[in-house]
Amino acid sequence: MSTTTKNRGETVTPATPGVDTAGVMALLDRGRTLATPVLRAAVDRLAPPMNTVAAYHFGWIDAEGNPAEGDGGKAVRPALALLSAEAAGAAPEAGAPGAVAVELVHNFSLLHDDLMDGDEQRRHRDTVWKVHGPAQAILVGDALFALANEILLEIGTAEAGRATRRLTAATRKLIDGQAQDISYEHRERVTVEECLEMEGNKTGALLACAASIGAVLGGADDRTADTLERYGYHLGLAFQAVDDLLGIWGDPEATGKRTWSDLRQRKKSLPVVAALDAGGPDSERLAQILAADAHKPEEEFADFSEEEFAVRAALIEQAGGRDWTSQEARRQHATAMEALGSVDMPAEIRTRFVALADFVVVRER
User: What is the pLDDT of residue 303?
Assistant: First the structure.
């Protein structure tokens, strides 16, 4: 692997190839261990059947209500919230309410996104709307958002108020990003800048909140929290760039989604937008195909064969969209590292932040 990559006129240092996987897994496990009991207690507050529907979504029970050990997700956000508390000199437990609040907002968005996107699978299981119906998916999502604010405000401190303001601002941006994402699906052209703005709202804002909310609860000043937020924001853009790659070329066994999942939804993700922006014969052919796709009714598009999606994926790759997006993930990773470098924290905590960021760029699910 070369030491630098040229990307949009800049020199980029790629993520460290030797990721401390064991260390990152320990961080993610710690996030689950400290957050899950509080998360379960929060979900138990919901009125039936919302408590059961939420428990199914989190993987705690199966569709029949039997106890299950489902995949609860990557837990990157809780891990960041606990780390950020430590960056402020507090115990990781100080960040636990923030970790839970961010996780509740994240899952609120997943419940609604799955319904809006028509996704039938998440984490290798049927989605909530498919099992319990659209109405429950909407109601439980709303309830999780309300719980997120409740968890923070119950602390009753000035720091909790500051944390809540950051969470609500991030949630508004997340909703803005989802609205942009949906509006782009039926547009023939979206610029790279528009796509990055959308992904910064949809993914970057909540990861930025996760990276700063524990520090706020731990008593950090706004300068420290803002800098950690910048780290999280650019990490979020790197995270989403990798998600965009997996949304087209990811292994369904690892991702839990169908092959070509983003192409099936006509998403204007970074690989697509970069390929359309590249110019050349492959880019022009892709533009013609996607322009025709934009005017097809949903039922006709749903009947496309695997070969038709494979043709679109091949054109995106040949036009350079796959390579550009991979480089963009590394550029955003480098920007996150730059922000992290300006925060004073113990060396051990900094090493964990770096390892988590490296993991985000090389993950396969």
Answer: 76
Q: Which of 344, 289, 293, 286 is nearest to 317 (CA)?
A: 286
Return the H-helix or E-strand segment holding 121: strand 121-122
Q: What is the pLDDT of residues 282-335, one digit of tens each?
A: 999 999 999 888 888 877 777 788 999 999 999 999 999 999 999 999 999 999
Determine, yes or no, domain membership for 258. Answer: no
Q: What is the pLDDT of residue 9?
A: 32
Establish if 68 belongs to a structural domain: yes
Number of domains in the chain: 1
Q: Is the peptide bond before 346 cis (omega within 30 degrees of 0)?
A: no
**CA distance to 67, 152, 155, 214, per residue, from 90 (Å):** 35, 17, 16, 9
Task: Using the structure block, give the residue that is written with the tokens 């809540």.
Answer: 164
Query: Is 295 part of any domain?
Result: no
> Is the torsion defined by CA of 253, 180, 107, 98 positive or negative?
positive
Which residue range forms the structural domain that includes residue 30?
16-248+336-362
The terminus-to-terminus CA distance of the chain in angstroms comes to 22
Burial degree of 248 (CB within 10 A; 0-12, 13-18, 19+): buried
Contact 206, 292 (CB under 8 A): no
What does the alpha-carbon distance between residue 104 and residue 92 come to, in Å, rounded to a whole number?
19
